[in-house]
Amino acid sequence: MRKLSYGILVLLYFAALLFGAVGCDLNDPDRDVKRLFPESTGYKTIYVSIARKGGEALLRRIEERLGDTFKGLYETADVPYTMYQVFKGQELIGYIHGVNQKGQFGGIQVFLALDLEGTIRAFYFQKLTNQSAKLLRDPAFGRQFVGLNLKDFMPYNVVTGQVKGESRVAAIKNPAPEAESDFRAALRATKKNLILCDEFLLGNRYSKIVSAGGAAYPRTPAANEWWVGGSLARTDGDMP
Amino acid sequence: MLAGLPCFAFSSSYLFFFEAQGIAGYSTALKKAVYFSISQKEAMQKPSLGFDYVQRFSGASGDFAVLAVQARLAVNAEGERTLEPQLYNAYLKLKTRAVDIWIGHNRPKFGLSSSLDNHGQLLQPLSMNGLGFDRDWGVGVEHDYAWGNAGISLTTGSGMPLYFKGNYFLSGRYSRGILNQDNHSVGFSVGYGNVLDVMGYHLMSETPMEFYAAGLDFTVLRNNLEHRLEFMAGGLDRQGIFALFWRTSVGLLEESRLKLEAQPVIVFTKLKAQVQFSVGATYLATADWTLRAMVQYDEEMKDTRFVIQVYYYKGIRL
Questions:
Q1: What is the ipTM of this complex?
Q2: CB-based contact A15 B18, cutoff 8 Å
Q3: Mutual angle of helices A55-66 and A180-200, in 10-degree steps
Q4: Do A107 and B255 touch (CB under 8 A)?
Q5: How many Cβ atoms from other residues are within 10 Å of residue A231's Cβ?
Q6: pLDDT, greater one: A78 or B2
Q7: What range defines the domain where residue B82 resides?
Q8: How many domains is chain B partitioned into structurally?
Q9: Backbone phi, psi, residue A205, to 5°
Q10: Is residue B4 in a domain?
Q11: CA A171 to CA B276: how far, in whole Å?
């Protein structure tokens, strides 16, 4: 028994070198993909993680773009993100991705359906247990996000909830004032989601837009570079 | 130039998680320390090392199949210590336009447990109280609709081990409501078969028993509260059986890191009631480490068990 205990301890030590918690899946991709992309004929599921693509340097850059630090159970470099590439026949027509976000009562899950340009074509909560959930789940609330992209969300400061300059995000109204914290969480989740999609799916189309609140996270030397195609590539000059 | 391209080179089509757990407790009936949560003969929970693997297969136009394998090597610490290999998920799911079809070792389509992930938990649903199976060998067909889910399965009725002694279990479940979107769901299940009396990998009787049951289950989420309720009625080995399961949970602290649960289970058989009452606490210490504790009173065994669990679950990049 003692040998077994030592064995378990050794395995746990090595396990500590591994990567982290579970990400955010669609409850039923077949149903949800068809609902969000009625013209689709199939989808492909891929798993990505910050740790795998760029490690701490990439995490720092994502935090800088978000204008806030990653924290909590579901905001670590090693969380695997589940991303869905949506097809019509063999033609890629869009993406779906969801993120976990700390909410008023535990976690919430915010999913976005994006076109190939990274523009939101659908927003919805997968998980939201707030008693005001019905108002926030109303399609009218989700429609306020349709047509927006990361460029619209970069002026939104996820810490203060303020919009710096002009942005269509300022026009998004909270239908449930008693659920203000979940409303703010939804906006933060949307910005985080768009940044992750930009990093993992869109080839950083929007990487040069400075985030509101980003001043608190000065760019590190590593912030302009990340792993591409197996080699560290400079990104200067690549604009959407 | 490369920086402008999507970086799918960093994506993968699988997830692989390493799992480890330590279990220790005290049984008032046995008057000694125990290293299991329910019984040494049951598969869950015992000190173990394991893994959880999901592989997706896709072609040019999308996913067409999923392979899931989930296994543990558990320690039987009572008496002569032995190691017990345990296979939970071991199925291939094929996706067609109409339905998903699985074959292998999976959750049979019966009862609340078919939609509840209790793989690492101390508190267990009715399937671990002799009504249905947590996992079973066979085939299943299911489909998710805008309003919920429906499916059927034909399994061996032998649970964790695979036996062919004239045993089988045919079951189906129909549910309305998508829990995470509607915050409620209702399920109706029926099952019929000649099933084997098994506890984990232990065959308790060589002769299959007739089992038939219908069940109704409800789940409701509201703010930081969860309620899961299940009724089941039918017959087992020519005896009428009625069961009630209710689990209520409250999530506390940021991100609901602390969850407190209470769970009564009552099974009426042979004109007597078996009452089991459990309370539990789960604390998510980090993204990888979870601490659980349970106190369970079992009236039939005249036993109160105090159990603690340290649970670790972490992804591996292969």
A1: 0.87
A2: yes
A3: 130
A4: yes
A5: 7
A6: A78
A7: 10-315
A8: 1
A9: -60, -30
A10: no
A11: 54
